[in-house]
Amino acid sequence: MLMQQTLSQLRNLKLDGMARAFEEQAALTASTSLSFEDRFGMVVERELAWRDTRRLERLMKAARLKNPQACIEDIDVRQSRGLDQRVVATLASCDWIRNAQNIILSGPTGAGKTWIACAFAQQACRQGFSALYVRAARLFEELRIAHASYLETFPVHCLHRDQKERVAVLSDSCRERGRAACPNFS
């Protein structure tokens, strides 16, 4: 009965990772040879890993990446692509985010810019930063509407839901829809 109460209390405290680890240790006779400190340490490590996994899942879902499977490790840095492996490795550290800098990827249509941008966004999520994939045409349309209506709350209206994101991937839809899709705010 004590074990069920403990499991119930762990779940009430939202310590699901600990609850699972506790159940697994109770089922394994090999874990009884470990000291209490070792077993408790394993349970705490399991909870931390579970929380990290859940956080990454939440960040990735909120990012709505066009290519969520894109990852830094899969970027093709062959000489023929014109990508410098050292630059990719430096950008993978996400120091550019911490330093409030930007990345602009340019190249011909079909070169993989969006995929690479999604890989950097995924890496940012893995390091705990929030990200968001937005089609540039959609953002430009929201900006155009807000500009046309002369709202005093212009920045809040346009960017309120996205302002907490540390990384924004803007997909250049203007090329897909022609230059007319790009706004002129003059």
TrEMBL record:
Domain IstB-like ATP-binding residues, every copy: 9-148
Signal sequence coordinates: none
InterPro entries found in the cross-reference section: IstB_ATP-bd, P-loop_NTPase
CDD domains recorded: AAA
GO molecular function annotation: ATP binding
Name used for this protein in its record: IstB-like ATP binding N-terminal
Origin organism lineage: Bacteria, Pseudomonadati, Pseudomonadota, Betaproteobacteria, Burkholderiales
